[in-house]
Amino acid sequence: xxxxxxxxxxxxxxxxxxxxxxxxxxxxxxxxxxxxxxxxxxxxxxxxxxxxxxxxxxxxxxxxxxxxxxxxxxxxxxxxxxxxxxxxxxxxxxxxxxxxxxxxxxxxxxxxxxxxxxxxx
Length: 121
Known about the structure:
Structural class: mainly beta
Mean pLDDT: 94
């Protein structure tokens, strides 16, 4: 079993940056790919980024390519999402997840509680 807790959310102005962290307990995160998803009120949860279990490859939604970077630290059993050049449309609750490397919500078995990111214009 894996337990995930996100942190690092907050309120920033457009063009600013935030770094989200995902801390794991229980089974090591190194056994799973890590995905990041976001969900705004009244909208479906959507894919943001993912990184393989080894950390050797990553994928990003078109909307965040060139602005967001996903990484992981196996020694600390954590993952991170660096978000730069934030836009108001990035406003959402952000979730980290562990599971099979994929852009699909259904491929991930374990989820964090979410952390709110609000980008003001």
